[in-house]
Amino acid sequence: MEISNTYIESFIQPRNELLMEMETYAKEHHVPIMQLSGIDVLNQLLRIQKPSSILEIGTAIGYSALRMAITLPNCTIVTVERDSERVDLAKQFIARSEAANRITVIEGDALEVDVESIQSSFDAVFIDAAKGQYMRFFKKYSPLVPSGGILYIDNMYMHGLSDLDIKEVPRRKRTMIRNLKTFADWIMAHPDYDSTFFPVGDGLLICLKR
């Protein structure tokens, strides 16, 4: 028996006015932000891990960065976004929060920016950007995570597309889904990580570095 959305939503934590405003903006302007059930689980895992620093790949309008910063009042976050309009929006929203002094927004392509020049290591990395590039993001930034650190990766389910035979996936998304599946197979077999898939939100993958 499947659990109803109403029952799942009864466990979702309340948010402040700024976060609610951001959720409304994202819905009205079709900006992808993490699903509420998924980010609640992510934040609970972060409470358990207690990282002092997080690198986020894919800022969008700054919603998840703010959610993580509010959850972890002693944590600093560096977040990377290549869309200049979204960078501006993220900075505006973040500036209105009490966590503004703990979040650094970097504008640029995450595959090209030199994050290491800003900070040499992070306790956790959260990847939520171009799904077809997850393998490249992981390989570029996992060296910045020490043993015992965790990489969190969202959208592994990709709204159900990852569960389909590749021939059933719309042509324009096949390369992305093929890359996503290749990454999933690769990381689950990787000897340096203990990885687990959480079927929450749009699919959250947790990779603990050995």
UniProtKB/TrEMBL annotation:
Mg(2+) binds at D128, D154, N155. The lineage of its organism: Bacteria, Bacillati, Bacillota, Bacilli, Bacillales. Catalyzes the methylation of 5-hydroxyuridine (ho5U) to form 5-methoxyuridine (mo5U) at position 34 in tRNAs. The gene is trmR. GO terms for molecular function: magnesium ion binding; O-methyltransferase activity; S-adenosylmethionine-dependent methyltransferase activity; tRNA (uridine) methyltransferase activity. It catalyses: 5-hydroxyuridine(34) in tRNA + S-adenosyl-L-methionine = 5-methoxyuridine(34) in tRNA + S-adenosyl-L-homocysteine + H(+). S-adenosyl-L-methionine binds at M34, S64, E81, D109, A110, D128. Keywords: Magnesium, Metal-binding, Methyltransferase, S-adenosyl-L-methionine, Transferase, tRNA processing. This is tRNA 5-hydroxyuridine methyltransferase. Belongs to the class I-like SAM-binding methyltransferase superfamily. Cation-dependent O-methyltransferase family. Its EC number is 2.1.1.-. Coiled coil: none annotated. It is an enzyme of class 2 (transferase). The keyword S-adenosyl-L-methionine applies. Homodimer.
